[in-house]
Each structure stands twice: as structure tokens, then as C-alpha cells.
Amino acid sequence: MSDTEFLSAGEEPSESALLVESEGIAVEPITQWDLFWTRLRRHRLAMIASGVLALLVLVVVSAPVLQAAGWIDSPVERLVDEGGRTLRNIPPRLSDGTVQILPPGAEAHPASTSALWFGSDDLGRGVFSRVIYGGRASLIVGFVTGMIVALFGTVMGSIAGYYPGAVDQSLMRFTDLVLGLPLLPVAIVVGRILPELTFLPGWIKQGPMGIALLLGFLSWGGLARIVRAEFLSLREKEFVEAARAAGASDRRIVFRHALPNAMSPIIVQTTLIVGIAIVIEAALSFLGFGVPPPTPTWGAMAAEGGRLAVRGFWWELVFSGFALVTTVLSINFLGDGLRDALDPTQTIERK
Amino acid sequence: MTEPLLEVDDLRTYFTTEEGIVRAVDGISFSMQPGQRLGVVGESGSGKSVTALSVMGLIEPPAGEIVTGRLMFKGRNLLELDEDEFQEVRGGQIAMIFQDPMTALNPVYTIGDQLMETILLHQNVNRSEAREIAIQSIDDVQIPNAAQRMLDYPHQYSGGMRQRIMIAMGLSCNPDLLIADEPTTALDVTTQAQIMDLMLQLAEDRGTAVMLITHDLGVVAGFCDDVHVMYAGGIVESGTVDDIYYNPQHPYTWGLLGSMTRLDDVQQHRLHSVRGAPPSVIDLPRGCRFRPRCDFATDVCSEVLPALRGVGNPEQQAACHHAEELDLHAVTADEVRATEEVAT
Amino acid sequence: MLAYITRRLVYGLVTLLALSMIVFSLLQASGGGPLDRLRLNPRMQPVIELLTKQWGLDQPVWKQYVTWLKNYVTPSELSFENALPLLAIVVAAGASIAVAKLMKSHWKGALILLVWALAVFVIFSNMTLKFNWGISFQGAGDVWDLVFGRVGATFRLGFSALFLALMIGVPLGIYQAIRQYSFFDQLGTTVAFVAFSTPIFIVGVGLQLILALYFEKWTGVKLFYVTGMNSPHYGEMTLFQQIGDTLQHLTLPAISIALISLAGYSRFQRASMLEVLHSDYLRTAKAKGLPRSRVIVKHALRNALIPVVTLISLDIAFMIGGAIITETIFGWPGVGRLYITAIGTIDYPLVMAIVMIIGIGIVIMNVVADILYGVMDPRVRYE
Hints:
The complex is a heterotrimer of chains A (351), B (344) and C (383).
Chain A: H1 3-10, H2 13-22, H3 32-42, H4 44-61, H5 63-68, H6 127-162, H7 166-180, H8 183-193, H9 202-205, H10 208-218, H11 221-236, H12 238-245, H13 250-287, H14 298-310, H15 315-342
Chain B: E1 6-17, E2 20-32, E3 37-41, H1 48-56, E4 64-73, E5 76-77, H2 83-89, E6 94-97, H3 101-104, H4 111-122, H5 127-140, H6 146-149, H7 159-171, E7 177-181, H8 189-206, E8 209-214, H9 217-223, E9 226-231, E10 234-240, H10 241-246, H11 251-258, E11 309-310, E12 317-318, H12 333-343
Parallel strand pairs in B: 3-8, 3-9, 6-7, 7-8
Antiparallel strand pairs in B: 1-2, 1-4, 4-5, 9-10, 10-12, 11-12
Helix pairs in contact in B: 4-5, 5-7, 7-8
Chain C: H1 2-29, H2 36-39, H3 45-55, H4 61-73, H5 84-102, H6 108-125, H7 143-178, H8 183-196, H9 200-219, H10 239-277, H11 280-287, H12 292-329, H13 335-344, H14 348-376
């Protein structure tokens, strides 16, 4: 008849667990990932967006296959000349004003294998295949820039956040400096100079890779700041102190404790950067300082399409613009969904 | 008995959430006399703060809604007032002090601004008179150099000082009722007692009734006349401080008392706690809401929700089927189980 | 506060130096050199020699950079009359220091901004001072004159866009927060997302085609002009016509720049307002018995607007990029279009001058935003 007995009786595990479950008071353990998926699935727009993006990646990656199968045309070649003769495999000549510009859905010339679903441009090239190939440039820029930013920003931010003092100070000064550069004006200069830099290998000068590298190295600053702030606040958290007290090494603390906790801002910020990078690449190409022709890009197609649209041929502008907006919108919706799903402050409340 | 100051009758305040309807306050009734000091005790989520916010008319639709009930304050049903009339009562006749003084004051206005705002709103005075009243009220809460400190911003005050300002603000219009929602929880222990003493002294000087909401039975014991114990949206026991402390009739009250350190505990009892967690107020168990955590529960407890009924003396009430049967001081859980086993 | 702002200005200066070095070396790295196009014309030989001498083009790159930098910060001729702008800067700086040292209230920031606004007015109304920014390599004229001849047009476009974005975006976000989860809120969120994801050039070209070009073609009514800042016969118009003409030219490019920023402001303002609406001090304000309108106008707005101030300085940098694109699309005679032309021909004194102007503008806007932040939020301590 002492209180000790009361305690042991009250805390008998099997019975109380049963009781508790039958009343719906306690719940089976939910892991972080379960929670993440549940929340992400609830975000309908994010789910649609990921579907759209998956489809885009599929089409863009398999573009050469589609081309080989004859479903789409080569993006850099004209289909027909003014006389209706096939001009496959002949590179386009400039200063040709007499090419017939075909509207969307037009019956392709018998020599061509695919219908011109999106019409053709003033050089006789199929807009549909150019939109698909243009997606390659956008996705490469988005993906590579995202990778660089995620890697660089995380490393810089973690080091600065984990080693306060001189290291932190100098790294952050450097970050501020990069953040202080006006993005588009500098990118325009680089985009203009890039093809002329003789010492660079061709894959950087010609394709979207150069633009991707450029944008990556100009835009990691924001993420580095976020990661640093996250690390600084984590330093103060009990679980990191506990790990340190338990004798965990620096490496273990960073990779097992700090980084997983900084993961959600890294993912969300990187997603946003991917969208921004795609827009800036398109803007550079629109201005003529991006990926050099004849490689198709949505930005360059919008510029060209704008000139055609003045003459009444709206399709190149509309389809390239639509592809660009849909892609960026999907990425932003996905980012929004990820932010909601990853936000640890938004726990499912139980009162 | 005089006419009660506040009479709450079958108040039900529900919140709509994604997971379902939260019955934060589910049918409570009580009354307060002028000048009375009432303690409302319960764990977090028991509905004590929502009760206070309901009285203040601060339940915000569409998320929260007072479903039924009457709130008679000085002969008027607050729930039937229109917004303009309620605004006169709110802050003027019923004032409220919140838990966290660090965030309860607007950071971009001076203390003086915020104090005078209330005074100008509820009293028929001009600015310079309001300034005088504000300075006086800062003086009353024992902050030195009142005229000077009127010009300071909240971040220039410490937590304890800010809570003094909140008290000054609450009492500056001489309200009939002051609701204090965990007013000292966020403060350190030495400041707690000072602030509590100060608040109750000032309230007494003005004849203001105080509803003190807390999870700390010790605070209630020291400062209140009467106590309501709340659990899962309902009152499970009410009575005078002495009744509740020395003769608890509800197992939950008994559990709460057991989890409290008492200086008068000559027998050196071990502390114990109420096991388990409060139920989700979305998914309430059938029958008595305390049953899953109760060591004395029987079949009737899982079927019928017990109503609040008089036990022992006329002022003490408990919502338990087995109140009076249980000698909570003498009986332990094991013995109850033993007797049940014999019975079945 | 003084130390803080000085430090920010020094960091800004370092950033500007780095910016100039990066752009300078990039321009130098381009093949052929900046004078190649001039060489095609034999009559240009004296000009080439002059430029080579002036910019030290036969020297190593670092020496060229030093020459450029020295020229860039050197006033071309300093006399007693044209030194007024410099004097205004010195006086304003002195006044700021005095205010920062003597005043206690956080409102001193507002006073300092006011002093500088006056100084800027004096500087621009007495702009007789010139810096030695050189001559355009493409023979377009003196770089200082070229740039400042176009700054006005860009300011007109930029401030109209900023005004539009703030005047529409901020109230929109506030209204959405007050009516959270309403149909209007959800519509606003969706529209903001779409606007935010639409590149400026798509908006610009789209508006130009539909509202300026096709609209006139279809209805015969001239609603907006496709290009330019004013009609050629602007000088002969009445004041009323002039305003109309200006708006007909200005509206579409301003909207193009503003749209993304507008969406950004509305999202940001909505989030910030929601946070304030759920804050404890707002509950206190309601508990005082204040009417809902006063609670929102006096207690919520002031707090909710504070974070937006920081967004403005970020947004200025973004809008400069937007102006470059939009000016190109709408043939707007501003600095942005000049920049694109200059880059195309690698006209390096001109490119450098414009890049530096942009950089300086961003640094100044950041400092202004910092001071404004301190004015709005008394908790801010400058450290």
C-alpha cells in the first residue's frame, strides 16, 4: 500500500498500451518520411506538377529516340524548300525569305515523316520538334545549376555555420560579394563573351552547359546563407550538444545530425533555383546571349516567334512560351508542395 | 448571495480543423460573484484558455465557433451583443492578461502609446488626462520613473516588467472582471510570486473579480477562493480551495494533487503522475472522458458520461460516478482492482 | 548605426571593385580586342591611336584596369561652380553623422534619408560635374553623356514599375491575408503563382502583340504604342495629350517589369500579414476592445509592412534585369537597351560604365533599405 506500487501498476506496459490504442489516444509511430509523403500527396497541385515534369523529362530524354523513329524531325534542319523538295540533312541557309511557314496541324510534306503539330518556322523547321529539343537546354540548365547550387551552397554554408569565427567571417564576406553581383547584367556579359573564349572546350562554349555553370556559380549565395543559419541554430540545439557530449566526431555530427535537419531548406531552395535558372537561361537566349544557335532553346524561339507573330504567325511564340511557363510553373508548384510537406513546424496537430 | 457577475451556462466552443471538429469547451457552466477569485485548473488542451477567450469574445470564426450557451455578464447575455456593444465590454469591463508577456505587446509602439490607447478607448478623457492615468497605472504596478518609461518600447522592458505593464493595461479602466491566463508561467520563479501578489492586490483595491487560469494547483492554492478543475473540455470538479485540496472527490483532481510538490507533506509521499496523455478532443472516448487514464474505472464509466453533482458539502461538485465511494486518500489502485476482482 | 552603415558602404565598395574586375577581365578575354571593328575603317586610325593612348590598350591588362579605374573616379574638370554636387554630398554626410550622434529616437533614420533626398535633388538639378568615363569605342559619343542622357528614361520606367508592383501587390497580399482561405485568396494565390512563373519577356512580347499590335489591327483603336517613350510630335501636344501619350507608351513596359515583382510582393505581404494576424500582440489589441478596423490598420499593418521593406532592395536588383529585357522589347530609350547594344559590340568603356552604375544603384538601395528598416522597427539595433 505504498505509492511505489501505484506507479508500477499504472505503468504496466502491455495493458496501458492496449487501453490507449483502443481509445485512439496514442498512435502508431509515424516516421518523417511517412509524414512527408502524406503531406505531399495532399498537395494536389504539387502532384499534378510532378506528373507534368516527369512527362517532360521523359519526352525530352527520349527525343533522339523519337527522332530516330521518325515521330519528330531534327530540330536544326528544314523540312522542305520553297519548291516542296525535301531538304533533310541539309543545314539551313540564312537570308531565305521565301520559305512557306506552315500553321499547326498542317499536313507535312510527303517526304517528311511527321505531321507539323505545332507548325513550322520561317526556316521550315518543325516547331514541335524544336520545342521538345528546346526542353533539353532548359532541363540541362535547370538540373546542372540546381546541382551546383545545392552542392556549393551546402558545403559553403555548412563550413561557415560549423566553424564560427574567422572561417565563417571570410566565407560569408565572399558569399555577400557573390550575392552583391547583379545577376542578369553579369550573366549577359559572360553569355556574350563565352563563345569567344578560345581556351574553353567546345561543350562549354556551344551547349547549355556553359550557361548552366555560369548560373550555378552566380546563384549559390542564397542557399549558403540559409544553410549557415540552419547550422548556427542547430549548434545551440540540445540533440547536437548531446551528440557532442556523447563523443561523436565532427563528421558524424555534421552528417548524422546537422545535415539531415538542414535538408528541407536545401531541397526547397534548390527547387526554386532550378525554376529561376531556367527562366534566366531563357531570358539570355531571348536577348541573344544564351545558348548559341542553331541549338533550339525556348528563349530564342520566343524571340524568333515574337518577330514571326508580328507578321501573324503566332505559333512558335505561343508553343515555346507555353512550354516554358508550364515547366517553370510546375517546378514552382512542386517547390511549394515540398515546402509545405517538409516544414517541421506544420505537424499534424493532436489536441 | 448577490446577483452573480458572470454566469456561464452550458458553453460549447468548437473548432473546425482538417482532422475533425475539436470540442475544446464542451458544455461547461459556472458563475462568478463580484470580487471573487476563481482558479481554473487543467492540463494544456483541457479547454481552460478557450473558456476565457469565449468570455472575451475572441473566438474567431470561421475556425472557432461558440455553438451553444449563455454568457450572462452583469445581466446581459454577451453572446447576443453586437460587435460595437461587445467592444465596450471587452477591455473596459472584462480585461485579460495573457501568458507570454514577451510577445503580448506590440513591438513598434511605445508603452505609453499602448496604455493610453486602452484608456482613451474606454474612458471619457482627453489625451493629457489619459497620459496622467497611464503614468499613474505604471506607478501602481511599481515601475519606477513612470513618466520616462512611457516613452520606451516593449523590447526595452524585461519579461517581468512587461507583465506588469499588461496588468497595468488590464486594470487601467477598473474592469469588473480580470481574466489572467497563466500570467506568470513564462516568468522565473522569484518574479512569479511578486507579480501574482501585485496583481491580486491591485484587483482587490478595485473590487475586480479575478479568473486565474493555470495548470499549477500550487498557484491556485495560494491566491484563489474557489477552484474549477477542467479536463477534456468539461469541468470535472469544483469547490472551495480547501475542499479541493483536502477532500478531492474526482480521481483526476487527486492525481493532479499527487503530482504537486507540497511543503506540508509531512509523510514524504512519493510524487506520482496521472498516467497517459489527455485524450484528443476530436475523438473523445464514450462515457467518462477520464476513464482511459483512471485506475478506478468500472463498466458504468465506459457507458455514461458523468454529470457534475454535489458531493459532500453543498459547494463541492464532482463529475464522477464513484465520487464519495472512493476514499482517495486511503485507497490505492491495487486495492480497488482487488475488490473488483472479488466482486466479479 | 554610423559604424554599421559605414561598414555596409565599405562592403559595397569591395563588391563594386570585384564587379568591375570581373567584368573588365571578361571583356578583355574576348577575342580580337575592342578596336577591331574600328580598324575596318582606315579613317579611324587617329581615333584608334587616341583611344589606345587614353586607355593604355597597349599595356598589360592590370595596367589597363588601373587606368580605367583612375579615369572612372576622376572628375573631368573641377571648378568652383561645378563642385556643388560634391559639396552637397559632403554636407549631407556631415549632417547624417551629426543626426546619428545627437538624436536618440529611431526616427533619426528618417531624418537622414530626408537629408540625402535633398542632397540628391541638389545634385541632379546642378549636374554640371562630369567624370572622365571616356568615349564610346563605337563612336557613339561621350560615355558620361550617353549614360546620363538615358538614366531619366530608365528611372521613369523603373519607378513606374516599382510603384505599380507596390501599390497593387501589397494591398492585395494584405487583403488576401485578412480573407484567408476565401475564394479571392485562393484565386490570388493561383494567379500570383502563374505570374511569378511567367518570364518577363513572355509578358512583354505578349502584351505588346495583343494590346498594342493586334488590338489596333482588330478594332482600329490605338490603345498603346508598340515602341518608344514618346511620339515624335510630343512637343506640339497640349499637356493633357502629353500625359495621355506618355501613359500610352509607358503602361505596357511598366506592367511587364512589375508583374513578377507584384506577384512576389503579394505573396510575401500575405505571409507576413498572416504571421502578424496570429501574433499575441494582435490578440492583446483585440482584447483591449479596439474595433477590428483599428486593430488591422494600427496594430497589424505597421508590423506586417516591415519585412516587405527588405524585399524592395532585393527587388530593385531584379527589376534592373527586367528593365534590360523590357527596354529591348519595347525599344525604350533607356540604359538597359544601351547596355545590350554596348555588349553586342563589346564597347567596353560603355559596358563598364553601365555595369558600375547598376552596381552603385544596388549598393545604395541596400543601405537605404537598411535605414528604412530601422525607422520602421524600433527593435533594430545596428551592429
